Amino acid sequence: MPADARFRRIATDITRRIQAGEWPPGGPLPSRVALAAEYGVNAQTVRLAYVHLREAGLLDGEERKRVTVAHPPAMRTLTNVDAEWPYSSETTDTRARPATEELAARLDVRPGVMLRHESMECLEPGGRSAMLVSSWWQGRRRAHVSFTAELGVAPLREGQAHALGLLVDSVAYRVVRTRLDVHGAPVETADLILPLDRWIIRL
């Protein structure tokens, strides 16, 4: 197994064990040497897993010092799904793509028509990912005067889980937001993916 796959597999398993309560928030994790022996890998592989989990906000502690489980971040409340994100964000994908049946229905276009697309990762002030937003529209972006929003839940795909520091197939909030023009016609639709452990939704 490639080294990259090994440390990601170990990071995923450590995340599972934290979520199961094996190591509580604020509590120490075993040393890299101890975990390396448990997983049958080099201590460097465990170090890479720890670095990955620190970047994802699941662990606290600096290099060569005691590593502890991070306390859960403060909960945010989402009340306006059309508000601008007040902190930094990163655009992660802008490739155009054909409209699926679902997107075609949301935008009132033909399935297969090419849509503009943007995926964005909204970051907390400390750099941790707070939510993911994927938007689709046809042609140039147009102004909107209102929007609709539907709240549900959905399992995280691999890329989403990696960005949010969660396990694949973990359940997250999914808000479907569709922006409307002055005539009530859809001009843009988006999926907002929000981790259950970081958000309260009040629409």
Q: What does it look like?
A:
The protein is of the alpha+beta class and 203 residues long. The chain has two domains: 3-69, Winged helix-like DNA-binding domain superfamily/Winged helix DNA-binding domain (Arc Repressor Mutant, subunit A, Orthogonal Bundle); 76-201, 3-Layer(aba) Sandwich (Chorismate lyase), CATH 3.40.1410. The chain has helices spanning 3-19, 32-39, 43-55, 101-107, 158-164; strands spanning 59-60, 68-69, 76-78, 89-93, 97-98, 114-123, 129-137, 146-155, 171-180, 186-195, 199-201. Helix 1 (3-19) crosses helix 3 and helix 2 crosses helix 3 (43-55). The longest helix is centred in the first third of the chain and has 17 residues, at 3-19. The protein is elongated and about 65 Å long. It starts with a helix and ends with a strand.
In the CATH scheme, the class of the largest domain would be Alpha Beta
Q: Which stretches of 5+ consecutive residues score pLDDT under 50?
A: none
Report the CATH superfamily of the largest domain.
Answer: Chorismate lyase-like
Give the integer mean of the pLDDT values.
Answer: 90
- How many beta strands in the DSSP annotation? 11
Share in β-strands: 25-35%
Amino-to-carboxy terminus distance: 46 Å
Based on Cα principal axes, name the global outline. Answer: elongated
Q: What would you report as the Rg, rounded to the nearest angstrom?
A: 20 Å
What's the structural domain tally? 2
The CATH topology of the largest domain corresponds to: Chorismate lyase
How would a textbook summarize the main sheet? 7 strands, antiparallel
Structural class by secondary-structure content: alpha+beta
CATH architecture call of the largest domain = 3-Layer(aba) Sandwich
Question: Share of helix among residues?
Answer: 25-40%
Count of DSSP H/I helices: 5
| H and E order | HHHEEEEEHEEEHEEE
